[in-house]
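Exercise 7.
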Amino acid sequence: MPRLINTYIFKELAVPFFLSVGILTVTVLLSKMLKLVELSLNHEIGFSFIFWFLLSLIPPFLIYTIPASFLVSVLIACTRLSSDNEITAMKASGLSLLSLTKPVIAWALIAYALTLGLTLFLLPWGNHNQKVLLFDAARTKTTAGLEEKVFYDQFKDIVLYVDEIPKGGEGELRGIFISQRADDGPNIIVADRGFISPSPEKLSVLFKVFDGEIHRQSTDETRYHIVKFSNYTIELELKEGTPVTRKRLATREMYVGELRQRINEAEASGRPTHHLTIDLHKRFALPASVFVFAFLGMPLGMQRVRSARLTGFSVAVGVFIAYYVIIKTLEALGDNGFIDPVIAVWAPNVTLASLGLFILYRTAKEKPVRLVPWLEQALHRFITRFSHQK
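Solution. The predicted structure, written as tokens, is:
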């Protein structure tokens, strides 16, 4: 009997979980379609770019949609079981509330493993791959605009002139003239030939030129330098306003090992590490939030409500918004040094998990929980006021 009931509850959780993940993910992706349309028109991107860009967008959103969907599934399943008196029947058959938590904890472990895998591996890949794809689209559009015997100024601090672009030359350029603005005065570079190639690691364009000279005049105009070279590499940075301008990896693009290395480097140089520590611990705290939602969702979903308007979904939205607001508030305090960054990240989980265990204990003892009637009244007042305004 317990095994059948656990399987039954497990299936009750599965349907709303997968539906919520699918609906939330599709909703988020649809909100990004406008950006893809803009990229398609401005940069003439193809299907391959759209596919990989959408794939890169999914992990950064799934780390939030999976815990949120788990909370929705727990509340919807428990609300339905409670409203149909199935939980009462299970208790009457001798099952304790603790035994009913087993399928919920099993689903929490699955959601935790999925979210942890995303935060540790797919989140950095997705964020960095988005930047690389946007850079490649901007670079393709920029370099494709090169024309023979035309001055080209789409690179930062660089004016480029190409005398000849041979057909079938595999990107070779001939008769190159470059005016480069520098802090110590302009440089004039002339070369017989060169090649433009992207550098996705640095998010820049490398221009390799061969058999040329660098001309530079001193700032006091008393000296003139000429340097000859057989090969020379210039880093061409795209102008501000292109989708990608940063070269150093952002914290959300780094894996855990890279984050720890960055923290050690910052500590060694005496720079603050609050934001890096927060991002590192969030990789583990965010997946752990599913256990918080398990402890909160079960007792809240099992409470009797007077109005059908108070659904599992509406409570889930309220709990998740409250959790998100608390996280962002404490993160801001931790980032500014008002509280310890580790405490700022883990305090919401510890606090809400303790609240959930307290509510679960009172529910197991069949004691009333005033939080649910208060939520019901607040939601009823909101709906009534909104309907009057309509």
